[in-house]
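Structure (tokenized):
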């Protein structure tokens, strides 16, 4: 979870949508976005239940996705701690991280959250919850990721542009 924000070109690296602060200016904390979609999905699954997967395979697949997501998330957050910068989008980024999982993905924490979300939906046999992962990713893309990338490009200039040119957004 790198920080992002709208572009105003000012010295504080902030933007009009974040009050000129040196922060991401995202629409909401990403975990809150994931939890909101998860709640809506569980509601839809309760109102319109559809059994899709047998119990054994869904628990195995769901558990595997959750475990992979947690491992990736902890590895990514560890890099923020190593570089003494915050992974919270409402706090300034003080370092550009290109190590650990950030060598392969510009958004490993969002990838991790998506894996955990998908794992929960699969284990719960929640097809509506799983289907909501698509609109969730659209909200995340426009409300968080694009803003973070603008912020990081302003804040770290050519270093971030080089990183962005060599590392894919997801994998």
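Design, position by position:
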């Amino acid at each position: 979870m790198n920080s992002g924000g709208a572009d105003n070109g000012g010295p504080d690296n902030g933007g009009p949508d974040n009050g000129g602060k040196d922060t991401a200016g995202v629409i909401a904390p990403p975990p809150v976005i994931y939890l909101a979609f998860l709640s809506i999905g569980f509601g839809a699954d309760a109102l319109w239940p559809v059994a899709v997967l047998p119990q054994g395979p869904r628990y195995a697949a769901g558990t595997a996705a959750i475990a992979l997501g947690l491992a990736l998330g902890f590895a990514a957050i560890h890099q923020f701690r190593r570089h003494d910068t915050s992974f919270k989008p409402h706090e300034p980024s003080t370092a550009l991280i290109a190590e650990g999982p950030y060598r392969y993905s510009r958004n490993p924490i969002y990838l991790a959250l998506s894996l955990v979300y998908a794992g929960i939906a699969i284990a719960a046999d929640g097809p509506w919850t799983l289907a909501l992962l698509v609109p969730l990713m659209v909200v995340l893309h426009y409300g968080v990721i694009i803003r973070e990338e603008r912020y990081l490009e302003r804040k770290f200039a050519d270093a971030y542009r080089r990183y962005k040119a060599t590392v894919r957004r997801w994998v």
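Reviewer-requested clarification: Confidence is low (pLDDT under 50) at residues 1-17. The helical segments are 30-47, 55-82, 108-123, 127-131, 133-166.
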